[in-house]
Every structure is written in structure tokens, then in C-alpha cells.
Design a protein that fits this description.
The protein has 3 helices and no strands. Helix 1 runs antiparallel to helix 2. It starts with a helix and ends in a 6-residue tail after the last helix.
């Protein structure tokens, strides 16, 4: 594994942790909002309990925030690796 790949993997791991933490915070806040306001705002239907609403909100925010991970970066690194291996294979001075 190259140094660039290992650095990208560490950065993507950090981004994934940040994404999960942000989604967890938003899910907890959605559950707290539901529990505080389900009795006050009778014109807003709250079909689920606050825990179920928090879990649904957590997974909804995971889907919404998943664009933080740049998949095109990983694809670009793989394309560059293939192109470099073709150039190395074609280089006649590396054969001897």
C-alpha cells in the first residue's frame, strides 16, 4: 500500500467518525425535540415515540451526510495506480 493510500484511508476513517458523531448528535436532538414538543404542538403529528424518532433521524442523517466521503478520490487513486503500472510494465529499462 502506498503512502498516499494509507494517508487517504486514515483521513476517510476520520471523516467517517465525524459523520457518525454528527448523525448521533442530530438523532439525539431530534429525539429530545420530539419528547419536549409532542404534547405542546398538537397540530404536528408525532407518530413515533421519541426514541424511535431519534433512531430514524440518526439513519436519515447518515444518508444525508454521506456525501462527505469523496468516492471519486478513491476511484482516481485506483486509476492512477493502473496507469502507473502500465507505464512501469512498458519501460524497457526496468527489465534489466
Amino acid at each position: 500500500m502506498s503512502q498516499i493510500e494509507s494517508k487517504v484511508n486514515r483521513i476517510l476513517g476520520f471523516i467517517l467518525v465525524v459523520q457518525v458523531v454528527l448523525s448521533l448528535i442530530c438523532g439525539i436532538l431530534a429525539g429530545v425535540y420530539t419528547s419536549n414538543n409532542s404534547k405542546t404542538f398538537t397540530y404536528i403529528p408525532f407518530p413515533y415515540t421519541s426514541v424511535v424518532d431519534g433512531v430514524i433521524s440518526f439513519f436519515s442523517y447518515i444518508v444525508l451526510i454521506n456525501t462527505m466521503i469523496p468516492i471519486s478520490l478513491i476511484v482516481s487513486i485506483e486509476i492512477v495506480k493502473v496507469a502507473q503500472s502500465i507505464f512501469i510494465d512498458k519501460d524497457r529499462f526496468m527489465w534489466s
